[in-house]
Design brief:
The protein is built from five helices and nine strands, in the order βαβββαβαββαβαβ. It is α/β, with parallel strands linked by helices.
Length: about 210
């Protein structure tokens, strides 16, 4: 039975992770760190906090596995420094705190093309985070690199919706790695990584997810 910590549980992928974790018999307790309260559940501990002031010694850091689906968009976070803080610094801080309290498995939703030497700011930032997480020292680290995510959004994103529709139409002719990634499938891969992944670093792309 796994005690699982989730960050990003109010987002698209994180919401699916939370839903699936609460229904998974392998999970004994879910701790969700959020900036606003979420619906209660008898196996859920919802910790509402400011990620800029995470306590290093809280008892709820003592978990077996962690799923990080925390992130923002340039549309909602205009400042490059604030964007980096949310997409890089917060997930890394969560990883370090959880590792210090004994967590052995960490699963991250990253991005297709993530590379610390990428010429594109988004994929370069994702690559930098991946590299830093490898240094933390988790016995098991799962990194999921989806393509364009598909699923029900709580906020309308007209431009993204158009691109998603195009990806759906082109799906049959696109290489599997570039095809649209259902958020629920990405979530399932993250959850399995945080619960049952063997030792080592595991990179997961579309073609690795069933």
């Amino acid at each position: 039975m796994t005690r699982l910590l989730i960050v990003g549980a109010t987002g698209l992928v994180g919401g699916f992770v939370l839903e699936q974790a609460l229904a998974d018999a392998r999970v004994s307790r879910v701790i969700a760190l959020t900036r606003r309260p979420i619906a209660p559940h008898d196996r859920l501990e919802n910790v509402v906090l400011d990620f800029a002031a995470m306590p290093a010694d809280a008892a709820w850091w003592s978990v077996d596995g962690v799923v990080s689906a925390l992130g923002t968009t340039r549309a909602t976070t205009k400042s490059p420094s604030a964007y980096r803080t949310i997409d890089h610094d917060y997930p890394l801080a969560v990883a370090r705190h959880a590792h210090a309290h004994g967590a052995t498995r960490f699963a991250l939703v990253s991005s297709l093309g993530a590379n610390p030497r990428s010429r594109f700011a988004y994929t370069r930032l994702k690559g930098e985070l991946e590299s830093e997480l490898e240094k933390v020292g988790f016995p098991s680290l799962t990194i999921v690199r989806p393509s364009m995510l598909d699923g029900p959004r709580t906020q309308a994103r007209p431009n993204e919706g158009t691109v998603t529709a195009i990806f759906r139409l082109l799906g049959p002719v696109l290489p599997r790695r570039w095809r649209i990634s259902p958020a629920s499938v990405v979530a399932a891969c993250l959850l399995d990584g945080a619960i049952a992944a063997p030792p080592g670093v595991h990179l997961k792309h579309n073609e690795d997810m069933t």
